[in-house]
Amino acid sequence: MTRMPIEKGPQGQSYYRRRLPPLRFISYSLVSICIVVTIVVKILPVRHLYVITPEEKVEETPEENSKTLQLKHIFHHGIGAKDYTLHKRLDITPAYLAKHSSYFKSLSFVEAEKEEVEEAEEEEEEEEAEKGGINVLNTNTFDWPKVHRGKNPFDIQLPFKTKQYKIKRLKDRHEPFFIESYLDYARSVNGNAEILNRINLEWSDDDVSVPNITDRDTLVSLATISSNAYVRFPKDDEEKKKSDWIDVGDWDPDEQHNNINFGWDSIGLRGHVFVSHDNKTVVIGIKGTSGAGLPGGGSDETSGIDKTNDNLLFSCCCARVGYMWTTVCDCYEKTYTCNQDCLERELRRKDRYYEAALDIYKNVTKLYPPETTEIWVTGHSLGGAVASLLGRTYGLPTVAIESPGEMLASNRLHLPKPPGLPRHLEHIWHFGNTADPIYMGVCNGASSSCSLAGYAMETACHTGYQCVYDVVTDKGWRVNLLNHRIHTVIDDIILTYNETAPCVDQAPCRDCFNWRFVSHDDDE
After folding, report:
1. Winning range, highest mean pLDDT, from 21-30, 422-431, 474-483
2. Which are the catalytic amino acids?
């Protein structure tokens, strides 16, 4: 506005006359403001929430058939002193699907019918958890996301996108017994980096296709593969005779064990193998923790051995939380003192999950040679941690969902890592949410749900990138064990954000800082 000369009022007072600016200047100002706001909105990344109802399905018909994944094989590796040599494969062929078509139709129908019942049960679980308790008998047999309800888990088509990436990994990693020899030697020298560097390992910089983790549909597909590993397969009298399973291990049936329970009736590690239509991309989904007090853990057929491996991988010392706890190994020596050599030997035992995962990968590579195939690994919870360890061993692109901290186990196994690895060459992505106490590493303490269920989840540190959905801030969620469930992650977290979680480096982190780990090999 402009000022005019001073004038006199009716009673002699002085004042300025003010004249409004021309209308065109006001119009110019409004247009300028609109232009500035538009530029800011386009440039600055804005993350906001929006809700997708179960009816809004993930698109499953991408333009190219080569950009979809479908379940082709299921590997099951026996665990335990008696069954660790047992390893079989179930091929999901068109003939297999046709043979069990009636079961798949009933499975889809039952899942759809149970949706309302499960929602009511989930509300009861949430009320129970908020009171500080948990229904240890409640496990979700169909831990299948709502977005895929009514669809057959065995023939579902999952879309995915890739991007080119450079990974530094061992050049001779696929040579027979090379990895095993390296791990044995690394353990013999207590992982001493100075000594390991003397053997002059050859590393290769490989240009590979990795999952595009910024694409939401791709992340949903990988999480669905993790969820698929919980789904039970059809059983009938003929199935019980194991006619569909192919032996790929060292186990030979005999008169005493010719009808040994296998697959979903036997303890062990399971890997669901999804393959693209052009056979150029293979994704191995590792099954996570089952039942036994943790909600959303799928069926409980392997819960006992799962708990043993959970407590070995994610506790400071064999689940020695207190004198009332039953330890899973004999490495505890005295108060806050543990035998490091003993821990490392326990993790490398042939009847543990890590060694079983190595065997599953080797058998997958016999079907899909790594020289011509991109192999990825994924998994949820315990499955995500095992997937991460497998990915670190062979330099495989890995997406872990709600995995407990596996850095401690990775260090104890002395997994190969190139010296001076730049952060931009990291190939492991951990997705989690701030309301999941297992992923955040806070599901411990005498009164925690994990401890009450017998799980010693004492680690919080992850390797690789951390991609965290801050649902506590964005949605106002409380930290609750029910937020660890895979279908909750898919339906209520990933699909309610318009972007995937940003991935950042793991901040400096150390687990079990109050423990003393001793190596008696040094004294010999």
Report:
1. 474-483
2. 381
Cα gap 513→461, rounded to integer Å: 12
**pLDDT exceeds 50 at position 255:** no
Dump the DSSP string for 152-218. -TTT--EE--EEEEEEEEETTTTSTTHHHHHHHHHHHTTT-HHHHGGG---EEEEEEEEE-TTSHHH
Residue count of the chain, please give it.
524
Distances (CA, A) of 271 to 253, 285, 474: 22, 5, 34
- Find, among 418, 425, 363, the residue nearest to 393 by Cα: 418
330-361 confidence digits (pLDDT tens)? 999 999 999 999 999 999 998 899 999 999 99
Q: What are the extents of the domains in the chain?
A: 2-43, 65-166+207-523
The mean per-residue pLDDT over the stretch 173-199 comes to 89
Q: Which residues pair with 273 in a beta bridge?
A: 73, 284
Cβ atoms 273, 357 nearer than 8 A:
no
Q: What is the pLDDT averaged over residues 322-328?
A: 84
* Helix and strand counts by DSSP (H, E) for the chain: 16, 18
For residues 232 and 398, is the Cβ–Cβ distance under 8 A?
no
281: left (phi over 0), alpha (psi -120 to 50) or beta: beta
Rounded distance between C-alpha atoms, residue 375 and residue 281, angstroms: 6
User: How many Å apart are CA 248 and CA 245, to the nearest integer?
Assistant: 9
Contact 30, 38 (CB under 8 A): no
Nearest to 92 by CA among 154, 159, 142, 156: 154
What residue spans of 267-421 are helical by DSSP H? 303-313, 340-347, 353-367, 382-394, 407-413
Q: Which of residues 180 and 197 earns the better pLDDT score?
A: 180
SS3 (DSSP) at 99 = helix
Residue 277 has a pLDDT of 93
What SS3 state is found at 17? strand
- For residue 233, pLDDT over 70 is answered with no
Q: Which residues contact 365 (CB under 8 A, 6 or more apart)?
A: 174, 375
Position of tokens 């490495």?
Answer: 331
Q: Are 341 and 519 in contact (CB under 8 A)?
A: yes
Find the radius of gyration of the CA atoms of the chain: 28
45 falls in which pLDDT band (50, 70, 90)?
Answer: very low
Q: State both tokens at 499.
A: 């972007």
Q: Among 94-98, 145-149, 215-219, 286-290, which is the least confidently predicted range? A: 286-290
User: Which residues have CB under 8 Å from 447's CB, separation 6+?
Assistant: 132
Does the global pTM surpass 0.85? no
**36 CB-near residues (< 8 Å, 6+ apart):** none
Nearest CA to 292 among 270, 313, 267, 316? 267
Q: How far apart are CA 332 and CA 325, in angstroms?
A: 12
Q: How does residue 419 score in pLDDT terms, banded at 50, 70 and 90?
A: confident
